[in-house]
């Protein structure tokens, strides 16, 4: 069941309109647009492309993934095992955004390099704060 041709995914195929990539169907199921930052569900959802095992923890910039989706590019020094890289990413972003770590959760892609993060809080101020931060990032 790893592609759109599986029985369960066939039901979502008209919704996402894509042919053979299950991951895209999964993103369509979450209701995530190609933009990196989306408001809704009691907060904001952000797409991150993570590079675990890097030499330092840093937000590298923003870019477009091979699938045509926009994402924030980040690197953490923690290894990708037992959720260590995910925890390091949440610590990094909480520090950069001056938000509590408990307000940031992984909504999708816990074992993938491309992650969907949910930042809990009122969507309007978060969109303004994170949108300004996103615009200040360099294109990578």
Question: How does this structure look, described?
Answer:
- This protein is of the alpha+beta class and 140 residues long.
- The protein has two domains: 1-31, no CATH class; 33-136, 2-Layer Sandwich (Conserved Hypothetical Protein Mth637, Chain: A), CATH 3.30.1200.10.
- The chain is 32% helix and 26% strand.
- It contains five helices and six strands; from the N terminus they run H-H-H-E-E-E-E-H-E-E-H.
- It has helices at residues 7-10, 13-16, 22-30, 84-97, 123-136; strands at 37-39, 43-51, 58-64, 70-75, 104-108, 114-120.
- Strands 1, 2, 3, 4, 5 and 6 form a six-stranded mixed beta sheet that branches.
- A hairpin with a 5-residue loop joins strand 5 and strand 6.
- It is globular and about 35 Å long.
- The termini are far apart.
- The relative contact order is 0.18.
- Residues 1-33 have low confidence and may be disordered.
Within CATH, the superfamily of the largest domain carries the name YggU-like
How many beta-strand elements?
A: 6
Which H/E pattern describes the elements? Answer: HHHEEEEHEEH
Share in helix: 25-40%
Main structural class: alpha+beta
Key structural traits:
140 residues; Conserved Hypothetical Protein Mth637, Chain: A; alpha+beta; 26% strand; disordered N terminus; 2 domains; globular; 5 helices; 32% helix; six-stranded mixed sheet; 6 strands
């Amino acid at each position: 069941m790893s592609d759109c041709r599986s029985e369960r995914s066939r039901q979502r195929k008209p919704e996402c309109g894509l042919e053979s990539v299950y991951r895209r169907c999964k993103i369509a199921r979450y209701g995530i647009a190609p933009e990196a930052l989306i408001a809704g569900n009691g907060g904001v959802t952000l797409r991150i492309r993570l590079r675990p095992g890097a030499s330092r923890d840093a937000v590298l910039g923003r870019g477009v993934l091979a699938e045509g989706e926009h994402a924030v590019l980040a690197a953490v020094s923690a290894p990708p095992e037992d959720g260590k890289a995910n925890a390091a990413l949440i610590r990094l972003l909480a520090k950069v955004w001056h938000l509590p770590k408990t307000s940031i959760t992984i909504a999708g892609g816990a074992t993938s390099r491309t992650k969907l993060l949910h930042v809990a809080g009122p969507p309007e101020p978060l969109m303004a704060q994170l949108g300004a931060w996103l615009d200040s990032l360099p294109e990578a």
